Each structure stands twice: as C-alpha cells, then as structure tokens.
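Sample pair:
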Amino acid sequence: MKIVTDSVADLPSDVVKDLGIMVIPMLVRFGEKVYRDGIDLTADQFYKKLKQSKILPGTSVPSPGTFAEAYDRLAEDTNQVLAIILSSKLSGTYEVAKQSIGLMKRKCRVDVVDSEWATMAEGFIVMTAAKAAQAGASLDEVIEITRKTIPRVDFLCTFDTLEYLRRGGRIGKAQTFLGSVLRVNPLITLRDGVVEPAGKAHFRAKAIQHLHSFAMSYSCIEGMAVEDTACPDEAETLVEQLSAKFPKEHIYRSKMTPAIGTHTGPGLLLVAILGDKS
C-alpha cells in the first residue's frame, strides 16, 4: 500500500524518498501568479519574496484532478492508498482529497484520514503510517495505527505577529491575543484541529524558553522537529538546547513550507513532538 499527504506536513525530502510517500503540493498565490508549494517556489525564495513584495500571498487547495491523478499513478503499483491530510478545520484540502476518489480512472481502494494537525506534527503521523505500510501492514491496520498516533503528537510555536493568521482567517481561538495593548510573543498550538492560544511571553527569549519547557515535559519522545520561518539562528540555538533531552542528530530541522508561511509570516519558531508525557 501507499501513503499520500499534502505539503503542509513539512516532511524532509529524504524522508519522503525513503518512505515512498507521495506529497501533493498546496498552491501559493502572489497576485496573479500561482506556485506549487515547494516545487515552483522554495521556502528560501518564498520568504525573500514575502519581505520584498507589497502584495500579501494567499493559498489554494490542490484541485480534485491533482489528487485523482496521484491516486491513479499509485494504483499502477498498489490496490490500497491512504491519504493523510492536514486539519479539515484549517483547509478544504481534506474534502477535496475525499471527493477526488470519484474521479479516478483506475480501480483502487483509497481512504482519507483527517490528521487534525499541520506542520511536522502532521508529518510524524504520516511517517508512522508510512513505516507501518513499508513493514507490510494492511490499509485497515495502517488506518488504526494512524488514528492512535494522532493524539500522540503535539506542537507549540511562538510568533512575532498574529497579523498573518488574522488576515488568512486561520486565527481561531488565538484571536483573544489581538486585544492586548502590550506587545507580547503569543504561544499557540492546535486543539481538535483549530488554532488555540497556549500562553504568552513579553520577551522573545522567554517565549523560546516555553518551547524548551514544552519539549522537556515529555517522558518519552519518539520524534522531535524544530521548524522556523526565516529565523534559523534561533532555531539552531533551540536545537542545541534540546539536544540535552533528545539526540541532536535525530531532531528534524526544517524551514516552514510556503503554504504555512503565508499564514504565519516570518519569525515563527515551532517545536513538534511525537511521544508521551507520562
């Protein structure tokens, strides 16, 4: 069987290749020009463009045809496909991924699961499913493993500004931060697939300390990722600090995909974990 996901999962290219995962790119718009996330526009190119452009970018979900073509391509080699998609409460991609099954030209069982997450929290769910599939698990078995993994991932991140989330309509319950008169560094996460406030700090260094404490609160960590949007030095420093808890060489480091950066802007720092707290 084969695994499909979207580019918001932020999976490193070597992981995608090693586990045989098919990634469907989200679409990023700058004015009239549309780019395939991570293909036509890399993360470095995007953040450079974001700083220079007077036009705010937007995102679009992949077309039903894109998913159907992907399913058909995989159906040449397998009769079972599982698509694990970012939170349906953040994007219409999940619904498109389901509707696309009816457009397929080949016969193949395709199931779609709402990960309820985004970023490498979603990525860890996808990786766990892909490893099970590689080990010979059936589609039903991989679906069960996927559902059991969803509550075992989490992330915490801090922003310079929530303005991009507000403009993109993805701010969720974190809108409570917008009424603050004082400049704060908000901390957010996802709960049940929706953006939710997780604290705040009046200084950036203190906010980053919260990310460190979040990781340290785990008794068992199977996977850890540190991601950033155009603040790599802070990310590397955090990796060094976290290596006391988890081997540095096993911490995934990535720059947020343009599809995420569109809704967060520069200055976001995130820690994602697969593991248990007790």
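The domain at 152-276 is CATH 3.30.1180.10 (Hypothetical Protein Tm841; Chain: A;domain 3).
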